[in-house]
Amino acid sequence: MAKTAISDATDQSTLRRNMRVFHHLLGNTLLASVINFTMWFAITFFVYLETRSVAATGIIAGIYAVLTAFSGIWFGSLVDHHKKKHVMLASSLASLAFYVIAFVLYQVAAPGAFKDATGITLWTFIVTVMLGVIVGNIRTIALMTAVTMLVPEDRRDKANGLVGTVSGVSFLVTSVISGLLVGLSGMFHALLLAIVLTVGILVHLYWLHIPERGVAHVAEGAEPQPHTVDLKGTLKVVLAIPGLLALILFTTFNNFLGGVFMALMDAFGLSLVSVETWGLLWGVLSLGFIVGGAIVAKKGLGKNPLRTLFLANVVAWAICSVFTLRSSIVLLGIGMFIWLCLSPAMEAAEHTILQKVVPAERQGRVFGFAQSIEQAASPVTAFLIGPLTQFIFIPFMTTGAGADHIGSWFGTGADRGMALVFTITGLIGLLITLLAMGSKYYRMLSARYAEA
């Protein structure tokens, strides 16, 4: 009995220590995310104000999307082959180096060098800043695997909810900070702040003790892992888990549809209200990330996170089907707030499933693989849907057959063309989600999760 009591006390002490370390890592990652997203917003604002080129800002978004898609698998392999603390330190060191180089470039650039949208100086500066942002993605993958290492299985859904809350706070804070800093002094104070805070992040992380004895390895007697990206081995692991590839493809398809929001949401919102009102509204709507993440952190995701993921998608796509039926900023705002509240639950559910069914020594690569595949989808739609809306749906609802047949109740004009795209997208997403819930892959992955 005495030995059991001592063992229980030791286990509780270890649990408290690990959770304390997790919270420190979460706060450290929050600050790093705020810095990196601030730099992304800041460079976009700065370039537009300097060049007044929408094409240039669009290319910046494209650079981020392409680099994220191509780097995810490699970043995942780095996480798997090194200690989590080491890759986080390396990530912040790399970001710091790129921000220092960008700061020097900014200081030595000739007057007016950043006003030429095709200038080598401008694009060297942009790429340098964006590389500093991109290498920060390593921390996201490392944090997901650290949840597996530090948090007991029955608490991981709530821990993932906290991660979602951190993402929401980052999004809320950065859009405000970036505008203030760029308005104050261009990129000077933005880069200076990034450098100073990144140094602070490195110091905090360096002195943080993470109970990680070594790198996770395969079981004794199993085939050794190559210290490479090993895409073939990662695919083998994904395919070996029933329904896992289907889940990744389902999320990818959702992101593909989500590109409609990337392409049209700002234009649709600005057709209803002024730019000042729209910016303020998004600041309020971003609280939805925090609310949703806080709910998951407190309540969890239930016994079957996969079911929670799909039910959240049902609600989200149903909302997308109706929140633009009228040209109402109130209806749009309510719909978007609910949508953003659901987002942390959907993300946390996928992470919780992967953390349980994927072997620890492969989680970094699987998370990186999923990130690469899923993140590549939205920009594709964003690039396609703009021209389609401009040349097909808007004429259809302005002077075409749509205006004649449904215009009497749906409305006519350019904004109603965009609204029709949202409604169709929501209906497609709802249909695909319901079909996926009835598939054998859903049942297979649910069973695998329960058995893991």
Report how far the terminal alpha carbons are from each other: 31 Å
Number of helical runs? 19
At the first level of CATH, what is the class of the largest domain? Mainly Alpha
Say how many strands there are.
Answer: 0
CATH superfamily of the largest domain: MFS general substrate transporter like domains
Structural category is mainly alpha
Largest sheet: none
The helix fraction, in percent, is: over 70%
The radius of gyration over CA amounts to 23 Å
Beta-strand percent range:
under 5%
Describe the protein:
This protein has helices spanning 2-51, 54-81, 84-108, 120-134, 137-150, 156-185, 188-207, 231-240, 244-270, 275-285, 287-299, 305-322, 329-357, 363-375, 377-398, 401-405, 407-410, 414-437, 440-451. It has 452 residues and is mostly helical. The chain has 2 domains: 14-207, MFS general substrate transporter like domains (Growth Hormone, Chain: A); 231-452, MFS general substrate transporter like domains (Growth Hormone, Chain: A). The chain starts with a helix and ends with a helix.
Topology:
Layout: H1 2-51, H2 54-81, H3 84-108, H4 120-134, H5 137-150, H6 156-185, H7 188-207, H8 231-240, H9 244-270, H10 275-285, H11 287-299, H12 305-322, H13 329-357, H14 363-375, H15 377-398, H16 401-405, H17 407-410, H18 414-437, H19 440-451
Helix pairs in contact: 1-2, 1-4, 1-5, 1-6, 1-7, 2-4, 2-5, 2-14, 3-4, 3-5, 3-7, 5-14, 6-11, 6-13, 9-14, 9-15, 9-18, 11-13, 12-13, 12-18, 15-18
